[in-house]
Design a protein that fits this description.
Blueprint: E1 9-12, H1 23-26, H2 36-57, H3 63-78, H4 85-92, H5 102-111, E2 115-120, H6 124-133, E3 142-145, H7 156-166, E4 173-177, H8 180-189, E5 192-196, E6 212-214, H9 220-223
Parallel strand pairs: 1-2, 1-4, 2-3, 4-5, 5-6
Amino acid sequence: MTQLANIRACVFDAYGTIFDFASAAARCTDIPGGRHAELTSLWREKQLQYTWLRSLQDRYADFWHVTSEALDFTLDSLGIAVPGLRDRLMDLYLTLSAFPEVHDTLRRLKQAGFTTAILSNGSPAMLDSAVRAAGLHPLVDAVLSADAVQVFKTDSRVYDYALQQLGMRADQILFQYPNDWDAYAASAFGMRVVWCNRYGQQHERLPGRPDHEVRSLAELPSLLGIPS
């Protein structure tokens, strides 16, 4: 694969890139019928839908609120009414597991001199909790939340906020995203983009196009010319 040149910062989406959003349900043994994957999928789908719809309606609420409403919809839709499960799932979302390769990838980037950051729809409290629980604070230079601009991705104000906070041009920043639509939007904005396609999604028919597609962040250092 062709290496990426003139990159100064690597910026990561949080959920699905750094943190495994499926790990919340995976820790709950009392989800009836073993419907962990079904619950996770619908919860995530509604979570994203609500960010888009709230942005379109100009009715912002932070990501914690959106996540809780998406979970309420999911539990009602699946007919799951286990006492205490809703609160436990929300609490577990604050301490999601990091994907196995994350620590080593961030460490190698830092050692090679790259600025590292997270840019996410997650609220500041959610992101701070997850980063601390995973022990990532020493490896991340900045944690940036869309809450600062009161709108969700893929609104261009979120990407512009990252540029302003990092003090860099768009072409100096490499974004890593798990969502195809997010990767395409960041590319259309002018960022360099690596799509971390963990889930084998199809390519979107949208403006922009990621520079590279990988299945794991472990592939990122080689794209940046970092020796193994």
